[in-house]
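Request: Give me one sample?
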Amino acid sequence: MRLLRYLPFLAAMSALVGTLGLGAAPPAVAAPAQQANLLNNPSFESGLSGWIGDQILADGCGRQKPTFQTISSSVDSRRVKAGSNAAQITIAGGNSYLAWYQQTVSGITPGSRVRFTIWGHVWSTSTGADPTRSDSGVQANLKVGIEPTGNFPFASANTIVWSSLVNALDTYQQLSVETTATGSSVTVFAMSNPSFCNPWNDTYWDDASLTVVPAAPTAPAATAPPTQAVNACPKPTKFPTPTPGADGKIVYTVQTCDTMWDVAAIAGLTVEQLKALNGLTSNFVYVGQRLVLGTGAAAVEPSATPAPAVEQPTATSASAVEQPTNTAQPAASSNPTSVVGGGTPVAAATTGEVCVMLYEDANGDGTRGSGEGLLAGGKFKLTDAGSGGTAGDYTTDGKNEPHCFQNLASGNYSVEVTMPDGYNATTATTFALPLTPGGTANLEFGAQSGKGASGGGSTPSTSSSRLRTALFGAAGIIFLLLAAGVAGFLVLTQRGRRG
């Protein structure tokens, strides 16, 4: 009965334990329902894994090749929206760029309404003196888009549904766009084009999301937002081969709805040949761009005096650029095409190719940088998603890549790579893509020796388990101390009463 007088003290100790949260775990509360994020690595916590950076190049300072990388909150917390990392596009030398990150997501139910959101901002200044403020008058020119058929890469640029331009400077703003998926995959884009060619010209992206939007009640057709309609383009049609100019070059001017694949296929070239003829590294074209298709007889013939032998095309020339296009077929074409001068239409390509390579990602950032060479021992498997059969196998030798699986019928394919022993992947190891006639998909996969991109860090589940273990251990220690304190208190009290 004497212990009854100590019940208030014991109750206070129990309340203290409850306040500290070290007692019995409370019943789990279900998280509110939310749409699943379909993106791989949406917050860039795994570097650029799952994302591809690309750009459109042109003359002048405004469309140069930038660097695609991530930035850590430990470097500059203002550049990270959520977590520890954000994606960055940066460039030096007083240049700007038209560049973007993209990701293709498969497993979409055709007809689903999908929404892509991401946070972004631009910092653009000529001095770099104030990291919180861009120069007056700079336009960030940010926009996001969804390609509803999932074509990869930018094979059908005219079908992309874009958001309006957003001028987000120095502070993160959220961009969003919606459309209806017409295929089983979609590709999302986050694009920027800073208006000034400044020495400090950075774009930051973070906290992305791709979700399926729940079906809304049926509404009159007139209420549908017209800005979200897919820009329909006619199927590519044959065009007459342009007449060679005074310099002997056959030049075609890009029209609305043209793509690199369309022009190459109709001209009887591969995409790589067309890019080589024009000194291009990107697969993108724009309206009004002049593309060299080859060489031929000049429009204005020289005098009857024979031309010097050095200027005559030779029978041993291996380059399609050096041979008259009205007498020779383009080299290495895998499609039944022809190029004939004088306005004769050219047959379109019927097959495509998928080119793959594996590089040693020394810094583990998921992007191939300068000095990061090819890696031997990687095993690629190309699967025809339609039939489920193997369309090709290849093991890298570190010398002859990229390797191209050629003469592929149009359809959906998936590429899977197995890393060499002792290497971990720093990019996605599988990729699904649709292939159109005349299309070329170029895929780069990265691997790092040892721990790879993970850096040996704990996974969230492992970290949570360790935290719970530490908390329960601390709880046990506190309970022991409390028990010892109560026992000591009772002993001292009893001694005092006896005295």
Q: What stands out?
A: The two ends are 20 Å apart (CA to CA). The helical segments are 7-20, 260-267, 271-278, 460-498.
